[in-house]
Known about the structure:
There is one protein chain. The chain is mostly beta strands. The chain has strands spanning 2-3, 15-16, 22-26, 34-40, 44-51, 61-66, 72-78, 82-88, 92-99, 109-118, 136-138, 162-164. It is 0% helix and 38% strand. It starts with a strand and ends in a 14-residue tail after the last strand.
Amino acid sequence: xxxxxxxxxxxxxxxxxxxxxxxxxxxxxxxxxxxxxxxxxxxxxxxxxxxxxxxxxxxxxxxxxxxxxxxxxxxxxxxxxxxxxxxxxxxxxxxxxxxxxxxxxxxxxxxxxxxxxxxxxxxxxxxxxxxxxxxxxxxxxxxxxxxxxxxxxxxxxxxxxxxxxxxxxxxxxxxxxx
Length: 178
């Protein structure tokens, strides 16, 4: 298992990850940010298995996923061990950030393993899709994985723009947001 190396508080100072190798780290304070970078040779899915110090109902750990230009792609908070999946839309370097998003802070050690699998990213939300012009296409019978990164993502409460395949209309299938 690799060990986090400080200072890794920015994208520029991110610790390097190898796909499939575990990393151990610790947030030194509630304002500490730990950045890690993973370079992938092809589009695919990045799976992150996160092990937090203590399982809790309070969301005391945050995990953010950024693309090569530093744009936020996904954001999660958790108080328990969990697995997350992100789409790496192209070959390049992607960043993970571990943080303490609330006053529930733990200085215990966390660990995670980030694994990249080269595959199609169809069915995964692609950022930036914050307008009707940049909306992801949703086709009947195909699942879409994604999330809003805030309550006002895309300028509309609780909404991420999607567009229907032109051959369909909204009555062709029900939409369920979970």
